[in-house]
Design goal:
Order of helices and strands: HEHEEEHEHEHEHEHEHHHEH
Number of domains: 1
Mean pLDDT: 91
Strand order of the largest sheet: 1-2-5-6-7-8-9-10
Largest sheet: 8 strands, parallel, barrel
Radius of gyration: 20 Å
CATH topology: TIM Barrel
Low-confidence stretches: none
Length: 318
Amino acid sequence: MKITEHIERAKGKTLFSFEIIPPVKGQNIQKLYDNIDPLMEFKPPFIDVTTSREEHIYLKKESGLLEQKITRMRPGTVGICASLMHKYDIDPVPHVLCGGFSKEETEYVLVDCHYLGIKNIMALRGDARKDEAFFTPHPEGNKYANDLVSQVNDLNNGKYLHDLVESQHLFDFCIGVAGYPEKHMEAPSMDTDLRRLKQKVDAGADYVVTQMFFDNQKFFEFVDKAKSMGINVPIIPGIKPIAVQRHLNVLPQIFKIDLPDDLVKEVDKCKTNKQIKKVGIEWAIQQSRELIAAGVPLVHYYSMGKSDNIKAIAAKVF
């Protein structure tokens, strides 16, 4: 079922969902199941599955010289989606990236998703590689997320890269895109970022999931501005609970977001990571309750491969 259909069927009730990260290659998928199992009691209508970019590694040759190779440390997004459908009878949402993929490779991924009966796609530009100062698109790939949305939408209309395929089984993906309550780190202004979001919606995006934020007022202002620009698709808030001390530095640095001073002060009072995790859970509970009271269609949680704090939050909220 499409995400938009899940929202419509809920008839105003706020739904619960979360995002998972594929295990590093070589690990058993059971570890992933062990983190998903405790969250299934809250009846998530879907689970997002992230996709990792390629990485450059250097292998030492017999001559002593280093040879650059490309690898992916967390492969298997589509395979994991298939396993989630089989094990949990749930709608998976694979992340599809511009970065690191040609349009041809993207089409292959989307065809595989169509074969499996996957109805939803999260279309993202993706981040720069670790060895890049700025994002560089694949030379034969999509440059921006709105280009990727257009490619998915073309397939929904039977238009492949090289031909028009006559078929009674057209693609029918529900397309999600990212939104940034505190603007994308590369956007020169909030208004510019919102115009880019509008481009993604105009290209065919059906819903928006936001980057993490810790101040609900910023989310509410973002939604109001988006609506004023004619963005009328569902906007889903994304929540990430603080779990360790280094999050105070890492999250603002990586995601270019602000942490409320009240939250920072509470974390600074803590002596252990267990205390910090409790503060993060309590803050996310309050955030979630306020968002639900405001009538958001769904609250989406970034689990980062762990489920104990997400379960603690959901138990108090859903």
